[in-house]
Inverse folding.
């Protein structure tokens, strides 16, 4: 069983809970059971509470490198199913310090709101949500009750909302331009991620890599893709270090990744067609070129040895 991964894969395998232990090459990021650590047992970075479908993330200030580990961990969490709550103690959910920390965040954001900083209203509502969620999942706690949000704080005033829509529209346009550039760089291997909720794929070094930092062997990916197209696959199918969680005609969920089948069609479809003798290597190269994706030598060799999948 493989236990040494890069930072991103260490976080992804931890969240999948497909094995009890794993670490990066320097052991500065490692997990044991439900908890993942940064630079030692003194800093549990996050703990999975599977029954509650919650991940508690360490809120204690940290170094720059631990902050990078935290980013990898947050990207690995399935936000469709699990909620994340930042607290001082990730390993003891009954520690009163946690609920008191969340209460202090509510008071802090409320103070900012009273100072007339209207852009903090969403922070106030968010902090109340996390406080109430913690009581739902791990309460009760003596002296702490759920907080009701005042009706007048449910939405911004008309003028503020209008300004927000204009600002968000401009930001969305900027994001589209940035994401298009990041996607092109991702396809050719110049960057490892795309700042987008949508997950993109590429074939590189004999692996299928995702824009959220996970990877699986090309052969595993092609076997799953073929089974999906033939409708012969079942939930629980193993793909690399991950498990097929669910699938439909449009999407497939592997570990924490929800991938559109149209993306798999773009990247894996031509390769499977080549293996099955339906198209020529030149046609595969042309399809890869359309995606700005170059099939490197290792991937070409891997494909040539796959035979029928």
């Amino acid at each position: 069983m493989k236990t040494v991964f890069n930072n991103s894969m260490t976080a992804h395998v931890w969240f999948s809970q497909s094995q009890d232990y794993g670490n990066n090459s320097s052991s500065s990021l490692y997990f044991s059971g439900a908890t993942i650590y940064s630079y030692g047992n003194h800093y549990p970075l996050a703990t999975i509470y599977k029954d509650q479908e919650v991940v508690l993330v360490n809120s204690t200030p940290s170094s720059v490198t631990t902050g990078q580990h935290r980013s990898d961990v947050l990207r690995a969490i399935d936000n469709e199913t699990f909620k994340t709550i930042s607290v001082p103690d990730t390993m003891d959910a009954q520690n009163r310090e946690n609920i008191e920390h969340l209460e202090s965040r509510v008071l802090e954001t409320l103070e900012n709101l009273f100072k007339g900083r209207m852009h903090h209203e969403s922070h106030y509502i968010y902090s109340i949500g996390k406080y109430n969620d913690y009581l739902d999942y791990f309460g009760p706690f003596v002296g702490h009750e759920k907080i009701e949000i005042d009706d007048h704080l449910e939405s911004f005033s008309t003028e503020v909302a209008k300004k927000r829509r204009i600002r968000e529209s401009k930001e969305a346009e900027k994001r589209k331009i940035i994401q298009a550039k990041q996607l092109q760089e991702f396809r050719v291997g110049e960057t490892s991620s795309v700042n987008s909720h949508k997950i993109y794929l590429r074939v590189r070094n004999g692996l299928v890599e995702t824009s959220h930092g996970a990877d699986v062997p090309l052969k595993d990916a092609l076997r799953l893709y073929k089974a999906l197209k033939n409708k012969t696959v079942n939930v629980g199918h193993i793909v690399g270090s991950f498990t097929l969680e669910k699938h439909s005609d449009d999407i497939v969920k592997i570990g924490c990744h929800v991938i559109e089948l149209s993306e798999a069609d773009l990247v894996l479809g031509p390769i499977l067609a080549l293996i099955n003798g339906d198209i020529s290597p030149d046609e595969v190269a042309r399809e890869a070129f359309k995606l700005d994706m170059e099939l490197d030598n290792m991937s070409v060799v891997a494909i040539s040895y796959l035979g029928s999948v």
